[in-house]
Amino acid sequence: FYIISFFTFVSWRIQSLQWIYRHKDINELTLTSIGYLWLVFLGWQVALGSILLGGFLVAIIVTATHQSEDMLDTLSDMSKYSFVESQFATTRDVHTKSILMNYLWGGMQYQLEHHLFPTMPKYRYKALVPIIKQFALENGIEYRVDGVWKLWQKNFKTLKHFAGSSPIEEQ
To answer: How confident is the model at residue 170 (pLDDT cuts 50, 70, 90)?
Structure first.
């Protein structure tokens, strides 16, 4: 699925360009163009490596923050939750301690905030965390967050379980 994520990553880049075109956003076009021109000047090998690495990072981030959480498989499962509650139940935030990890996660360590406010710029998610935590506390909803390594361990156990080799251990 990491290879498929490469294509997802490329698709998201194309969708970003389509959005820029539809909205005629000159600032976004300028910044995006600088990034793509930088890749062109570095050569196709670096550009391809960048896209493959980006796709890989997207894959490990998106899968780790989703697939170890509650799965809402049926309409009956889905009807138990409001939209907001379903986002709390099916996603997990990641607490990253280093500047490098924050950079590599690219704002997606705030997965719950991303799901609740998908059009909000990702640089605003961090300021939203205390508000989301307070909302969860006031409404008796579990706010799920783990460190990077603990989350990846949990995800690995989930993958191993669904591969048929072990039960998922409750944590």
So the answer is: low
* 131 in Cβ contact with 83 (< 8 Å): no
pLDDT value of residue 135: 97
Instruction: List helix spans (H) across the chain.
Output: 2-23, 26-42, 44-66, 75-79, 83-90, 99-105, 111-116, 125-138, 148-162
Tokens coding 28:
């976004």
Residue type, 27: N
Q: Would you say 166 and 160 are in contact if contact means Cβ atoms under 8 Å apart?
A: yes
Is there a contact between 59 and 2 (Cβ–Cβ < 8 Å)? yes
Task: Give, for 24, the enclosing helix (H) or strand (E).
Answer: none
Q: Where are the domains of the chain?
A: 1-65, 72-164
Q: Which two tokens stand for residue 170?
A: 């409750």
Provide the whole-model pTM.
0.69
Q: Which two tokens stand for residue 156?
A: 């690995």
Q: What are the residues facing 146 on neighbouring strands?
A: 94
Quote the tokens at residue 147. Answer: 């460190």
Q: What is the pLDDT of residue 74?
A: 66
Question: What integer pLDDT is reported at residue 171 of this predicted model?
Answer: 47
Please measure the distance between the N-terminal and C-terminal CA atoms of the chain and give it in whole angstroms: 26
